[in-house]
Amino acid sequence: MDESLELPSLTPKIPQPTDSTEGADEQSSGEEDGGPDWTKIPSGSSKFSVRPVIPKRGEKDFEPSEGSALQQHMLGQMRSAMFDALNVPRTASNKSISYAIWIPHLRRAHVTVARGTLFNGMGHSVPRPLSPGEDDSLGEEKLHKRLELLPEETLYLIERGSMFCWMEGDVPTNIGPAWEDVAGFPISVQQAYAEMIGKDDLTLEKYQIYAYLKRLGYVVTRARPPTPFYPTPAPYIPKRSMFNWLLRFWGKIFTGIYALFSRKRNWWRPLHLGGWWDKHTNYASIFSSLRFLPAGHSRPLMPHKSTQLGTTGDTTTITSPYTIFYNLYKPSTPFRKTAPPPPDFSLVVVGARKTPMPSLLELTSLFDLLPEEPLPPPRQRHPTQSKPLPVPPVPAPTTSSVQTSTLTLGFSRLSRWIYPNWFRNGDAKVQPAVRKINPFQALKFGKKNIVIAVVDAGTTNFYRFGEGAFEEWPMV
Amino acid sequence: MAKIALRVSNHQAFVWNIQDLEAVRAKHRICGLLIGTLPHLAQQNVFLGVPLTLMPEEAVLLVEKGFAVFIDELKAYYAPTPQELVNWASIRGEEAKRDVERREELKEDAAMSWKLSDAAIQKRKEREAKRAVAKAAAAEGGEDDALFTPTRNIAPPLESNEDSAESPTFAVTIPTESSDLSWYSPDSHTYETISAAKEAGIWSYPSNLHERAKCGVFRDLWEKGYYLGGGMRFGGDYLVYPGDPLRYHSHFVASVLDSPTSSLLPVEIVAHGRLGTGTKKSHLLCGWNDDTREVSYHSIEWSGFG
């Protein structure tokens, strides 16, 4: 296999992120319109001469007609093209192939020879005793850092034809040619599927999603570290800390005081027009005065005791299948293995046959773990809207404070709560620029996003759930 | 005729052998789904390679009809003896040696044909002419000229510092199937029936009424001559094709009901009708009767009046 043609796409070459998502859409919606046309892919014999191109889908007939020789011929041709393509052996040059040893009891593969850019987004280093057999005799354990692969990473590299994997075992000394890195029993791809799936929380569904995304060029890491040595991005601290408790506590006191000094809420005149502190200068403040049902995702859900998930205090729910499993990075995101940045997407993988739709509680507990995302830049659909105003998205009133630390966020919220009118005046100045953002786009995108991958006996689908903040976009 | 081997691990059936794949598809009208990466087209998702995964219904049908057997994958491997490993390595060594020789020949051929070709001759001439110009410029001795003739200081082209001189290049083959490995012995871990496989603890489908209903409906539609695929993307359990899905569109989306008298929400009828019309299919409601082991079918289609 020519490595230069098969460069893993950390540099977004073939799988442009936009292309890839379009491809996924096309596959999910247009599966029926044209199946993969196996006659159009380069067969194994020509792979050295022809640059691999991603073929297009072919046309289909409506139904087989009785005794149509042409249809029979087409079908036969297509099948044989498919089986030819499936028969291509996995070969790689000895100069570009990597080697690893699978250690069953650790459920990890130790990489002995790492080659190629695929390793930029895979593997992590783990300190292990120098030689597993002799560490006791040395008295003190000597630790030695080495590159290890998770089961899915190992399986993907083997399956891709980029890595030769050995099973740990005693090897006779007189084995084989000296130039190969011999270290155990060879593992076939078939054995790797049986051996590595089912280890370390890796189900077939999760592996399929992993391989699908890797083939598109994404960097995929585990969200929950399987061992302490596995680097993960700094976790997002949900706003349920001590500080928030204090905030709520003081907030209650202040609202009490506020209620003392203000008139009682008059249901027939909710607007309090005329008071010295009431300055209803814009629609947003009037709407929020008219609102008597609490709204927004910051309010607790108050679930019924029997339907509550896991333990109430913890941020994680162990019992739910809806837990974040993979972190996803676009090929264009600069990624450092040792210090991964916050992920571009968080991914939940579920099997369609056993998992019901996520409940509101499950979705809420997922969103609690996720940071708020800035709005996507407004689309440039109508370039005729030529106004010299600054184009970069002016974040919505609350999102502007998201970027700052949680402390200031909390403080601004607190003070906003206590002096709502004062802040509203401040907002009013920003208001004209805010209108530039299409509220429907912002609502659709949501403030928090989670991708749920559903696998049904091999068929994969991706769904995005967004937490729309309707209370922030009144339709005025 | 040997039966098709369904390699089972994690309660999931895979087909690895190409001949088995052909038999499953062409002879038994079972499609399955390819999920592996094709080694020569590794960065796309349109065409995938072995293994073929089977829906549990498909595997159950193949085994119940006696076309296939289950193999317990994890137990089928034993640790190879040193002799087996040495044999394997020597075969591999010979392959590598042959590959090295073949590459050498190819390289020599290529080099020879290049040297004799017109393009090469022309290039050589150009190079000589350039060198002569550069020499003349250097002889004139202007310091400024050094700026324009920096070619000599540039590192030699990449081709010249190949390290292939010390170690030969050859192709390493990663075995895909296990059947070539002498330490893979599936014979003693083969199960001919579903119940035997269930007893051995490697298979569990069907385990309840809904799964029985799915197997029953799948089998009934298959016996009527249809090809079946997964219907998750169309709001049903199966897609029903009149011919091989490689060439034909499906006509029905089938969803399985556990009993012919099970209740149905009106909203479901609307949703099925709507989606079916949008995708040019009609929706098939398949009611499984667990006592008589029969299926009754009802199809939903937009009538299109007015």
UniProtKB/TrEMBL annotation, chain A:
Keywords annotated in UniProt: tRNA processing
Compositional bias ranges of the Acidic residues kind: 22-35
GO biological process, one term: tRNA-type intron splice site recognition and cleavage
Residue span of region Disordered: 1-68, 372-402
Origin: domain of life: Eukaryota
PANTHER family per record: TRNA-SPLICING ENDONUCLEASE SUBUNIT SEN54
Name used for this protein in its record: tRNA-splicing endonuclease subunit Sen54 N-terminal domain-containing protein
Automatic annotation (TrEMBL), chain B:
UniProt-annotated stretches for the region Disordered: 137-169
EC number of the protein: 4.6.1.16
Domain TSEN34 N-terminal: 4-73
Group of enzyme by EC: lyase
Active site feature: Y241, H249, K281
Keywords: Endonuclease, Hydrolase, Lyase, Nuclease, tRNA processing
Entry's Gene Ontology molecular function annotations: nucleic acid binding; tRNA-intron lyase activity
Domain tRNA intron endonuclease catalytic: 214-297
GO biological process, alphabetically ordered: tRNA-type intron splice site recognition and cleavage
Gene Ontology, cellular component aspect: tRNA-intron endonuclease complex
Function: Constitutes one of the two catalytic subunit of the tRNA-splicing endonuclease complex, a complex responsible for identification and cleavage of the splice sites in pre-tRNA. It cleaves pre-tRNA at the 5'- and 3'-splice sites to release the intron. The products are an intron and two tRNA half-molecules bearing 2',3'-cyclic phosphate and 5'-OH termini. There are no conserved sequences at the splice sites, but the intron is invariably located at the same site in the gene, placing the splice sites an invariant distance from the constant structural features of the tRNA body.
PANTHER family assigned: TRNA-SPLICING ENDONUCLEASE SUBUNIT SEN34 (PTHR13070:SF0), TRNA-SPLICING ENDONUCLEASE SUBUNIT SEN34-RELATED (PTHR13070)
Protein's UniProt name: tRNA-splicing endonuclease subunit Sen34
